[in-house]
Amino acid sequence: MNNICKNIVAIILIIGLVVLSFASSRTNAEERTIVLATVNWEPMFGENLPKGGFYTEITRQAFQRVGYGLMVKFVPWKRALESARQGKYDGLLGAYYSEERTQDFEYSELVYVDQVVFFRRKGEPPSTYQSLRDLVPYEIGVTTGLAYIDSLKEDEPALKLREVNNTELNLKKLMIKRIDLFPSGKVYMLHMLQTKYPDWKDQIQTVSPPLKEEGLYNPISKKIPDHRTVVADFDRGLQMIKDDGTVKKILNEYGFGEKE
Asked: Is the pTM of this model over 0.85?
């Protein structure tokens, strides 16, 4: 009888372990994947970059630390913004802060700082400016949907802003003298000139001072029921990888460690 009882107990324990193992495997298999939309913006993020670029890898590592997977959809920026607003994606990867956007998005903590500068043709004015008022005489190309457009319009309504769908088109317009200036993330544009338009890189100069230093964040759509939880979890994971040196390691691997 005692042996029978022992065997029953052993069987129950084995069944329990199998159930726990199955539950654990099931949990891992059903790990939640966050889908973020963005545009190709090399060298920070892009579908043809190793691991999607250093910004994508930082975001992925932060999510992984707190039990999430990450999928990035590269689409035109306007579509990314509107689709994420509607909850078709969980949020945006690498977006500037905008007070207006906080109506639709819960912003994460700061992930990376990007310097925004005006670009001009080499040797042509202006080489510097004191206020946006100094730029009123010039035709300025801007990219639809980027956060700094609103601030430019509000800070100096007299600016001649010419909107297009992407920053690369502004570069082309600058080179054929259809505009005089355009603002862009400095790292992004210098990388584009180096890799895609090397013949132009010595014909383009920046205007000082920088327009602004913009933080890049990962805003989560408020259409997602647990958006606050997702953001809080991401922020916790981001702090973990900052504290243990993972962020620094990623930046070094991509050649940006010393610059930041």
From this structure: no
